[in-house]
Amino acid sequence: MKFVLLLSVSLLVCFIQAASVSPDDCANLINPCRRTEELSAIDAEAETDNVTVRTPSRTIPGFKTPIYIQIVGNEVFLTENKGKVQVLDVHTGERLRSFSIPSGRPHGLFIRGNRVLVTNTGRETYSFTLSGELYGVHYSPIKTISVALDYNGLMYINEWNTCKINVYNIDGTKFHTFSVGSSCYPRKIQFDKQGNLYVGEHHSKAVFVFDRSGSLIRKISLPTITFMDGIHLNPLDEDFLYVADRSDDLLNIVL
């Protein structure tokens, strides 16, 4: 990764274009062939590419506890945990529009096509159009912090206060679970175009990158981050990684 974009925000909107994967190729999924409750995905002996990012190049102030971000075309979607879903210009940071969710606080975010999924601090996930029109609501039996879909339709869901990521089939049945360590707080998950899985880990202030087999291939340390929430890869240029810091009501961009 040549450059890293760091967004210091309280609420992060995040989306990634995952690589197309073949359902018949076991190597094209994150640990699809074994039950990963027994797997610690962080292997101390694995060779990794460690990167440290220290200086933001630009700051955009005025957010109410921003957490998750996601880029769609020339727009940045940002969820404010104490406010609304904000939509910004990706180049200038200008606020273009905003919309509210029916109940609770905006939290997690996932966008595919014209569908914007926003979780609140409870068990509801609201579906909007890109323009902010409410489309529907989904109720979950458990609290979730982050959701991502791969292009096989598998759904990856972080548990709230554990190191586990649960994977579900299209029909809602559980596929498998894997761990990103023994003492951690994974916040945001997403895929790049090669099918690698990016996991933002709150306590270690780092982003861990796993390949399709589940092996750790890179650790991106972010020592200037105080309270890391979401991460996002720019689908137009994956040399840029956006990371949200909830401790400040700011948007910092590091190149």
Automatic annotation (TrEMBL):
Gene3D superfamilies: TolB, C-terminal domain (2.120.10.30). Transmembrane segments: none annotated. Keywords: Signal. The keyword Cytoplasm does not apply. InterPro entries: 6-blade_b-propeller_TolB-like, TRIM-NHL_E3_ligases. SUPFAM superfamilies: YWTD domain. Residues 1-18 form the signal peptide. It comes from the Eukaryota. GO terms for molecular function: zinc ion binding. This is SMP-30/Gluconolactonase/LRE-like region domain-containing protein. It comes from Amphimedon queenslandica (Sponge).
